[in-house]
């Protein structure tokens, strides 16, 4: 698949003939380095430029441009194909964007680096009554696919709100389809979501991607989602406390109370269990900084085994160190033989 920028460069070997605007296009890397999103989503170039560049503070202009682009993009959401179960009026058929775990991911926390995060509240019963107890956090920024492009929570909220204002409602849903649901409160942001189950003709069970909660909404509250919004990683990052063992019956309620009363929370990823981050969580409300698992232990809610301080190196690093050791040993042997020869000569 070729990109617009690739076609321009292939057309001529003289870079002086390129337009001035072409020189500011983001570098996309080699084709084998690109993700599935960049390779397979049509009109990717336009979607990347849809995110405002880092350092540009004119967000009002960007938001108005966002609305215009989303309106234009609506024209490509419908096509005439032979799918009677998805048929809409006048023979138009909606192409649903189906969730795929390799394409539609949530944001990730860096391994071994403490990050200040915000807890997604409230922690619902289906989260804290299961074991291990899961909670969701989100960071302040979302990195886009292209270099030098950054989207933060405020930008994404504006893009979702602008899209929801113009997007058409759905009259049917498909399991695992990605959509946008109406906000729960008048002044809140619409929810990007995934369809889990159709309960009846009107009630739909959804998973809200940016808050990590399962909700039941009306069919009339759902609208189609754009490919751009579907491609942005979900903000809710699932986390589990690392090293917690032997939880008591009080654990869930105590952990929920402690987490929800923290105004400043930091997490440090120790490892990953699939897409779930196993973290050490820290309370930053004043000094000293306290680890949440230790607080739970003091209150008799569980036992806690902190991570081993021994550093674990990847296989590639170990092999590289071994190769350097062999080279160093060979050098020592040669040097020793050289000095022995000199001593004999003297």
UniProtKB/TrEMBL annotation:
A cellular component annotation (GO) from this entry: cytoplasm
Pfam family, one: TUDOR
Gene3D superfamilies named in the record: 2.30.30.140, 2.40.50.90
Span of domain Tudor: 155-243
Protein name: Tudor domain-containing protein
Naturally occurring in which organism (per UniProt): Brugia pahangi
């Amino acid at each position: 698949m070729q990109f617009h920028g690739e076609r321009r460069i292939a057309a001529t070997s003289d870079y002086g003939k390129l337009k001035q605007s072409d020189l500011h296009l983001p570098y996309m890397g080699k084709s084998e380095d690109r993700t599935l999103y960049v390779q397979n989503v049509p009109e990717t170039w336009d979607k990347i430029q849809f995110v405002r560049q880092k350092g540009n503070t004119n967000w009002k202009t960007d938001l108005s441009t966002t609305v215009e682009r989303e309106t234009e993009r609506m024209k490509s959401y419908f096509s005439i194909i032979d799918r009677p179960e998805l048929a809409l009026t006048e023979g138009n058929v909606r192409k649903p964007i189906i969730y795929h775990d390799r394409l539609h991911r949530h944001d990730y926390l860096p391994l071994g680096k403490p990050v200040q995060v915000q807890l997604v509240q409230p922690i619902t019963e289906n989260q804290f009554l299961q074991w291990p107890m899961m909670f969701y956090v989100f960071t302040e920024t979302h990195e886009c696919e292209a270099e030098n492009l950054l989207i933060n929570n405020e930008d994404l909220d504006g893009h979702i709100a602008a899209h929801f204002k113009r997007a058409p409602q759905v009259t049917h849903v498909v399991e695992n389809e990605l959509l946008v649901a109406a906000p729960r409160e008048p002044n809140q942001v619409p929810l990007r979501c995934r369809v889990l189950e159709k309960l009846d003709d009107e009630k739909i069970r959804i998973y809200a991607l940016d808050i990590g909660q399962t909700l039941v909404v009306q069919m009339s509250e759902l609208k189609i989602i754009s490919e751009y919004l579907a491609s942005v990683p979900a903000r809710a990052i699932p986390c589990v406390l690392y090293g917690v063992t032997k939880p008591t019956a009080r654990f869930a309620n105590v952990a929920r109370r402690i987490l929800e009363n923290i105004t400043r929370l930091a997490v440090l990823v120790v490892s990953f269990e699939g897409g779930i981050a196993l973290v050490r969580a820290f309370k930053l409300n004043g000094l000293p900084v306290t680890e949440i698992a230790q607080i739970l232990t003091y209150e008799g809610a569980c036992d806690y085994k902190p991570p081993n301080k021994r550093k674990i190196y990847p296989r590639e690093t170990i092999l590289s160190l071994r190769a350097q050791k062999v080279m160093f040993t060979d050098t020592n042997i040669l040097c020793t033989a050289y000095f022995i020869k000199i001593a004999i000569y003297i």
